[in-house]
Task: structure prediction
Amino acid sequence: MAATTIDWLRNWVEIYDSRLKAMQRDYSIDDWTERAGDYSERRKTNQYEFGENVYAALASHGIVGRTSRVIEVGSGPGTFVIPFSKHVGHMTAVEPAEGMIRVIRENAKEAGIDNFDIIDRIWQDVPVAEIRGTYDLVITSTVIWMFRDILQQIGRMEETTRGHCCVVEGIEGTDAQGRRIWQEIMGEVPFPLYPGYPIIYNILYQNGRIPQVRIVEATSRRSTEKLMKMYKVFYSLYTEFTPEVEEKIRSALLTDAQGGVHEGKYRSAVVWWDPKERRETA
Amino acid sequence: MTDPIDWNEIWKESVTETNRVSTSGYWNSRADDYAKMVDTSDYNHGRNILNMFMELGILRNDWNVLDIASGPGALTLPFAGRVKSVTAIEPAAQMAACLAENTRKSRLSNIAIIQKTWQEIQVSDYEKQFDMVTCCHALWQFPDLLEQVRRMETVSRGYCCLAHGVETSEQELKKSVGVPLDSRDQFITLFNYLNDAGIYPNVNILSYSLMWPAGAAIASKERFVEKYRALTDEDRAIIRDYIARHTYNGIYRIPGRMGVLWWKVG
Result:
């Protein structure tokens, strides 16, 4: 076998489908409203350390700067919108969940920023033709696993930018706590995979792009109460959320907590490319 | 669900043939044209890697760097101009002699040359001695790549940096003379192999130019064919015609891209 014979798009779809198969139902937009509080807490850790580190990585390669117009696909609580706004000309958040939009506005107020706007839709419904080439960077973090038609959505991102595209994905295997709790609740059922890195790199490369990568590290600090909420949403999708399940999660979280706080480091791959640059493919 | 992929096997398979034919003897025969290429190109690929680390604010002038399979110094010399010392490992005697000559001409006094293969180096003698370990365009010599990468990590207290071409050139010429085309997928195999091993490197794709005086370009292609079989008059004619068609102002130039994979050693 050679690396060029691997069908990475098929690989992506298989992982996507196997996750759906393992679920009782797929995520709905309301689940993200439920998740707004815990997600915001995570992203705000150490004054948006994650977003600041991603910004620094991109800025060090000349991808973003003071005058850049940036659009964030699936902004959540303002993952990049809040930290980037301080550094760039304008930010646009694409975010459909009402709860997340509320949190973006709260976080923006708290950070004293107003150079942003919000498109309250899912990315797939954004009329790309109306915003074609109006941004210098399209960026998204931990969202692309929702796209079964990944290459089509990547194509739409590329249409939107006159500069670069960037996807930021967690590195597999860093969520030890999550896997422990899964085993406790789901036993032998395999931990669900979400397609991300490095498959996305392979898809881009195999399809002629020239992607570059910077690995960044950030801290996540969350309260037991907020984490509990996250796990509640998550396990409701995979099993019946009984008092027993809740107790197992609570007990695992209490074991891990230091003064009611869960702190950990996580690493992410910042993958960016210029859609205008193509390499010769076989 | 997708089966796990054995990157070790894929890598081994992709480099076996290149490794078999690219002996020290071959590189000795290539030393002259390769050194001319590095000189004519003004150390372009090494300089571009150096510039990247300088622009990222990573490189420090008090560094000790180890350059594995240095050849005539494409990376060794640009780095030596900016850091405290560079130790070059180069097994081919003629290549090492070219590096010594280039060092003398550049008046640098901070380059040490060890004429050995990387595999012959006792890593316990150099544990955490270097701030960066580099290996540029030479990974084909390691079918046991991961083991050699771990050895690189043993001698590094800072970074490891591997560079490999992402596009192969001269496909038309290779097809015409009937020698194996380079594997197009070694870079992406390398990328996946490292990720699979939990290394998760940073990746920068850099452009570079290799430039030969026309005569040296012809010699390099002739030696390349001889890696696989005896050179015929027909080969000579095809090579001369190809180089002539791609030479401008006496210089044969191959533009290319390389993937620079680098990480901080934990």
